Amino acid sequence: MFKAILALALTAISHGQIAVKADLLFTMAGDLKPIKDGVVLCGKNGKIRAVGPASQIKIPKGYQTLTAKVVTPGIIDAHATVGLSGILNSPKHDQEQLEKSSPIQPELRAVDAYNGRDPLVKWLRDLGVTTVNTGHAPGTLISGQLMVVKTNVPSITSMKDTLVPTSAVASTLGAKALSKSPGTRSKAIAMLRAELMKAQSRLLKIEEAKDNEEKDKPDANLRLDVLVDILNKKIPLLMNAQRHQDIAAALRLQEEFGFKLILDGAAEAYLLLDEIKAAKVPVIVHPTMGRPFGDLENMTFTLAAQLHKAGIPFAFQSGYEAYVPKTRVVHFEAAMAAAYGLPQEVALAACTIQSARILGLEKKIGSLEKGKHADLALFDGDPLETTTHTTGVIIESQLVSALAK
Amino acid sequence: MRSRKLIAIALAPLLLLPFFFSSAQESPPLEVKVRAYTNATIYPVSSPRIEKGTLLIKGDAILAVGPGKEVKIPADAEVVDASGKTIIPGLICTHSHIGSVAGGDYSSPIQPEVRVLDSIDVRNTSIDKARAGGITTANLMSGSGHLLSGQTIYLKLRKGNTVEDLFIEQPDGTIAYGVKMANGTNSIRDNGGFPGTRGKSAALVRQKFIDARAYLEKRRKHQKEKPDEAFERDLALETLADILEGKRTVHHHTHRHDDILTVLRLKEEFGFKVVLHHVSEAWKVADEIAAAKVPCSLIFLDSPGGKLEARDFEWKNGAELSRRGVVTAFHTDDPINDSRWFLRNAAVGVRAGMSRQKALEGLTLAGAKMLDLDRSIGSLDPGKQADFVILSGDPFSIYTRVLETHVEGEKVFDLENPSDRLFAEGGYGAGHNREASGCCFYR
């Protein structure tokens, strides 16, 4: 019955004007406290027209009304590989997340590999995930680029289909990135430094050419130009580092080269809270339900709570899984952190507005505020409870799912 | 530890004698403590939830469970106020790979002679973590990379020094275990001797069971005709013969609907006891599973896929099976799902339509039935072993934490204990095996 009503609603609102009423509306704006009996008006242009308590907002004529117990902004996965690491886990067919022929390949673009029609993208969308920062997986020193894309985009027909075509370059320190060469942690860092120094001198030449007409701009270089963009802070370097010595190495590199660093994984970050805070570096924490083996053997479910207490900005990720579950669900990971000391609204923020901030997209997505994208997730209870269902998902004013999943 | 257990077993018949007997002994009488947990929300599982309930235990067994008003607490009992807390039976994981368990090697696809008990490391932190997750009994299994990878072992997660300390004795004096089998993708490989197709997989298994039938017949004949002569044993066929005689249960890894039906066909042909494990596509053949009266042990993952045969995995498996009367349990498959998330499996089942009662059974009583241990564990009933878990709240809430785990009346996990908490939450040193965690070596 419920499904039938929503299916009807789905056909009726092709124009994309939806009013969403919520018993509890987490706008994730301001102090993160939810509004009781709130309303969000999703306008024709895909943006939020109004948001606030029901008593203050009149639902205009022609709007289709949906109701839910709890509504949040569309969930944002701050680091995924979905769309590249497909459901079948079949190499050469749907596993595009890691290319191992060379340890440093910043030129690999996520846009060239993303399959928005993979069933796992729909799986996440139906559960409320509306935006993913997805692309190349951890596993080599520099494995490639990531991009930010909405989960209702089936194909990348132009860069406009993404929110950010190159949102970060993925780098990995520690055991996962070691093979024949680099074979040790020290060698890995030496190789990275050498590569970044090449980019440094290239950047110098580019700038000299800018100031001096007699000097030629260097020829295009697919690989180094990406690293140049990292050095001039156009693209952040997302460094996966789990062990404390790898985190320290990432901070050391950041200090030497001055790039925009996002720490990724950071299983032992609780040992270096002061250092991370001093470096003003955000953290995209490993999935709370990641497996405690290898470089993650000392991981703790309290990491997010400890980062929160220390005042270090952080967000959650689904990460990359080689086997099962082939994709994790980012708000499930947030939920488990909430079970281990993280306040509920902070856990929600770390898969909505905080993720948007770390990705530099807080003006567009991550909270329900007038003028921002009308991306919403509807629930029949606390979004973090395992037993709660996602009852509707809206992306840019379009109802993209109504499954009660 | 083991010796204490042996003494307990040795004394058991004595305890049945009048008590004056003990006064004749030189050692002091065995003191059996009575402990009462009061004011708790109790889920006995075998009966409805009790508010403000009392759980009374004596030594390693449950003495009484019921509403506080009805359970009489002996004057000398130790009383623990469990107000605001929830007590459930110890969790039973029917499929786990904790304890660095290993089975057969890759020399052949069917290795019934291999015992996983010979590989268990009781000091492995994975066992501490399982206790932290509320698990009191586990079926430790070898992998699914073989058609038959070995004999499993059922363990009580007592604090033990050797694997023997964790064994479960059956009424006939043997230890409790099953046999791990698999079909589908995982057991198909390129190694010589391994099957290359599903048809070949089934043929190899059928041939082995036919061999075992002949072996069984030969053994019967030998015992009848030459009872004084030793029979030449074949370790592999002996295990299969035990299966044919119904002494051991087959724990069968299977995912796809057609693979599930193949298991049911083999069960029908050879008449063995089988539990279906994982059963990703159970929802497609739920009627057939129900008709075959075969129990299912399920895993809940956060997404389908990871391989072709798990592409159509659905959360609704639990609801579809349990509403057809199939005995339905859950398993962690640790490390696939961490033992500390075991309760969450059941919550996913509830999310997809399983009743709370059936989901609770799936963590406890249903698993006990699959391991043939429901006479002694799986629910909070007088006379059963005192295996229970104290929770901070509702069993299906993500915010609920395991506070204490008790096996046979002994506390094996306490969140308040810092070294136990390390295993419950993780942190520096949580990955190291147990002997290093207590003191200063790694700090």
Q: How many β-strand stretches of chain A?
A: 15
Largest sheet of chain A: 8 strands, mixed
Reading the helices and strands of chain A in chain order gives HEEEEEHEEEHHEHEHEHEHHHEEE
Fourth-level CATH superfamily of the largest domain in chain A: Metal-dependent hydrolases
Major sheet attributes of chain B: 8 strands, mixed
Continuous helix count of chain A: 10
Q: Tell me the series of helices and strands of chain B, N- to C-terminal.
A: HHEEEEEEHEEEEHHEHEHEHEHHHEEEH
Q: What sort of overall outline of chain A do the alpha carbons produce when their principal axes are compared? A: globular
β-strand percent of chain B reads 15-25%
CATH fold label of the largest domain in chain B: TIM Barrel
Structural class of chain B: alpha/beta
Q: Short description, anyone?
A:
The complex is a heterodimer of chains A (about 400) and B (about 450). Chain A has about 400 residues and is of the alpha/beta class. Helix content of chain A is about 25%, strand content about 25%.
Tag the structure with descriptive keywords:
heterodimer, A: 405 residues, alpha/beta, Urease, subunit C, domain 1, 2 domains, 8-stranded mixed beta sheet, 7-stranded mixed beta sheet, 23% strand, B: 443 residues, TIM Barrel, 6-stranded mixed beta sheet, 28% helix, disordered N terminus, disordered C terminus
